[in-house]
Amino acid sequence: MKRKRCGQTCKKGNIAIEGIVILVIIFVMALVSIFAYKTFDELNSDIASDEEMGSEAKDLSQNMYIKFAKLFDNVILFAFVLLLIFTIVGVFMLDTHPIFFAITIMLLIAFFVVTIMLANSYDEIMQDSDLSSYANEFTYTTWVMQHVLQLMIAAGFILAIALFIKVRAT
Fold it and tell me: Is residue 41 part of a domain?
């Protein structure tokens, strides 16, 4: 029996899995950035109070500290938007059977439950008094994570519509 070689004609995908990947990537990036900012704050304080450090090192550390939150906040927002765009474009490249549209709608419900759980986890972690002041510096990230369910519902239905349009066009 000859095996079929997968090329452009046998791509398969799943909107719910792709959504979970996006969600986990953004969740991890947000947590790592906020914990890194907290660590950098402590390091910057140590550098500023160290008598042996030169003024140039202290100034450089302070400038990096000031730019850190804004830079990583923008990176997270950029990554979120870019991942959504890539996923929407990827849906048009999938070769799927129409039955997968119905399955996708059911899987989206499970995806929304996972989204709620991760959003609540993020909110609970950021309510910690040690982290809340650092999390407030990440305005875009905080907004995205507070509205991630609404954003993922919109993205899920855009992806489902894109899949449906593609299915209807074939």
Answer: yes
